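Lecture notes, continued. The same structure-token format from the folding unit now serves as the input rather than the output. Read the line below as a description of shape only.
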């Protein structure tokens, strides 16, 4: 593999802090010198970049992974190809997962790159269905909530990166799975492509009444990916013995204010178990997840669901669409 002849790379920087939902002009593209790997390091070319809602929380300085300030290169997980290696354990040409960021090239120590398994179906899946979103869904259901066949599972952001996998995994366990999404089109995708039993449009009609009709015996597992009013509404409809997975705050990411959560009485009344889910806690179980998920994928029981844009310069617009809820699946940028 040859290093680019002009010795240049391209990066996307945060140019200014967004006011509310991000827009394309909050970011800027920069050309930079291609870095030279030191002993023990590798130079990688970015193939695919993951875009995720938590990045908005990084910009706001509210994420446990750190803060992104104006002038910083945007961070993010990538699938990359090793172009140069100065470590004997990492061969040139190896496809790896790493946090390469919003840029065409990156340098890492050998311990910071993770080669894809030889049997991996497709590189981009390491950022979506068979990547961190999939691991998040699996950890919430398999390790924490442990839904049983016949139970009712409700998932907002039903067609997003985590929601799409969670819905399919819950169906594989024999659950009745109800999604919540922001448009009729997404609801159709949830039922027709992802296998949800029902999907409710949160912007159409009375969601409270629709949930009551859909869940007459209550919600057994609520996999929360949005927070806000939907968390409060679904917490009011929990069955006795329910499990609540607190995983995402999509409703809050674009706001400086944090709304109050559900009244604790909702959880007390239902004798609910409430879990805080942080995917990093389950990194040591990634191989276990992949063993199950790749098998389901190969059987056609777990479908890929990606919203792909082309070129590193498309990342700002794709991220803005994601934060407006306009993505159709896991947001991925095809960089090289």
């Amino acid at each position: 593999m040859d290093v680019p002849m002009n010795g240049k790379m391209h990066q996307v920087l945060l140019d200014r802090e967004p006011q509310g939902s991000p827009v394309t002009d909050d970011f800027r593209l920069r050309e930079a010198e291609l870095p030279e790997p030191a002993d023990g390091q590798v130079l990688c070319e970015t193939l695919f970049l993951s875009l995720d809602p938590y990045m908005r929380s990084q910009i706001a300085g509210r994420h446990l992974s750190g803060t992104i300030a104006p002038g910083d290169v945007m961070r993010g997980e990538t699938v990359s190809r090793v172009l140069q290696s100065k470590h004997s354990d990492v061969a040139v040409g190896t496809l790896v997962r790493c946090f390469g960021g919003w840029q065409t090239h990156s340098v890492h120590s050998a311990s910071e790159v993770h080669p894809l398994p030889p049997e991996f179906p497709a590189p981009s899946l390491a950022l979506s269905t068979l990547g961190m979103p999939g691991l998040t869904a699996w950890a919430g259901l398999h390790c924490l909530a442990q839904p049983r066949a016949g139970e009712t599972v409700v998932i907002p952001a039903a067609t997003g990166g985590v929601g799409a996998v969670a819905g399919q995994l819950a169906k594989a366990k024999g659950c009745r799975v109800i999604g919540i999404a922001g448009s009729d089109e997404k609801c159709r995708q949830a039922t027709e492509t992802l296998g949800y039993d029902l999907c409710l449009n949160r912007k159409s009609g009375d969601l409270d009444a629709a949930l009551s009709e859909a869940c007459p015996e209550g919600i057994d597992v609520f996999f929360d990916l949005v927070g806000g009013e939907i968390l409060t509404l679904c917490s009011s409809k929990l069955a006795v013995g329910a499990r609540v997975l607190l995983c995402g705050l999509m409703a809050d990411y674009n706001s400086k204010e944090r709304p109050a959560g559900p009244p604790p009485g909702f959880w007390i009344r239902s004798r609910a178990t409430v879990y805080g889910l942080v995917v990093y806690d389950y990194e040591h179980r990634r191989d276990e997840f992949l063993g199950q998920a790749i098998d389901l994928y190969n059987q056609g029981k777990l479908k890929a669901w990606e919203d792909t844009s082309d070129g590193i310069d498309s990342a700002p617009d794709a991220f803005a669409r994601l934060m407006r809820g306009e993505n159709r699946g896991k947001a991925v940028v095809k960089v090289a």
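Point for the exam: The radius of gyration is 20 Å.
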